[in-house]
């Protein structure tokens, strides 16, 4: 019996010591956090990672109206219906695109209407069109740029 009570007391003592160690470490970590935050060092330590995250963030803007364009095929009347989304560098660019929608839509329609169905039937042709559209939109923008163009809808007939 005395051995059992000794073992039980050792276990209780060990458990109490572990709890005290955990509480002490948690209190120490909290004090370090408060010190770093109050002294402004917390922001300095993590500012570069926040700036990197902001630098890599981008936004998607989807044109509200689709584009319905006659293609420049000579033998047959063909048209293209597409909906565009663009990845933009800054949220302000979305507002700028909205303000210049008429000019941008006109440039895209003019650009696409110069294409033939043969040009756009291949993946390479579609990728080339995306680059041309991005360049065209970027020529109207001042506050940022279009990073990439996406076809949300693309139907040729």
Describe the structure.
Strand 2 and strand 3 form a beta hairpin. 61% of the residues lie in helices and 18% in strands. The protein starts with a helix and ends with a strand. Helix 4 runs antiparallel to helix 6. The protein has 2 domains: 55 residues; 98 residues, Band 7 domain (Tetrahydropterin Synthase, Chain A). The longest helix has 38 residues. It is elongated and about 100 Å long. It has 157 residues and is α+β, with helices and mostly antiparallel strands. Strands 1, 2, 3 and 4 form a 4-stranded antiparallel sheet that branches. The protein has 6 helices and 4 strands.
Topology:
Blueprint: H1 2-39, H2 41-56, E1 59-62, E2 67-70, E3 79-88, H3 91-99, H4 101-113, H5 117-120, H6 123-138, E4 146-156
Antiparallel strand pairs: 1-3, 2-3, 3-4
In short:
By secondary structure, the protein is of the alpha+beta class. It is 61% helix and 18% strand.
């Amino acid at each position: 019996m005395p051995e059992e009570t000794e073992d039980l007391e050792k276990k209780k003592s060990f458990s109490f010591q572990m709890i005290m160690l955990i509480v002490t470490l948690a209190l120490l970590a909290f004090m370090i956090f408060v010190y770093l935050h109050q002294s402004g060092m917390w922001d300095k330590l993590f500012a570069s990672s926040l700036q990197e995250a902001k630098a890599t963030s981008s936004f998607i803007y989807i044109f509200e109206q689709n584009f319905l364009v006659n293609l420049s095929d000579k033998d047959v009347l063909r048209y293209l219906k597409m909906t565009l989304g663009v990845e933009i560098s800054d949220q302000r660019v979305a507002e700028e695109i909205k303000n210049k929608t008429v000019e941008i839509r006109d440039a895209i329609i003019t650009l696409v209407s110069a294409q033939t169905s043969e040009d756009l039937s291949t993946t390479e042709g579609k990728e080339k069109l995306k680059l041309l559209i991005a360049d065209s939109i970027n020529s109207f923008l001042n506050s940022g740029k279009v990073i990439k163009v996406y076809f949300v809808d693309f139907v040729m007939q």
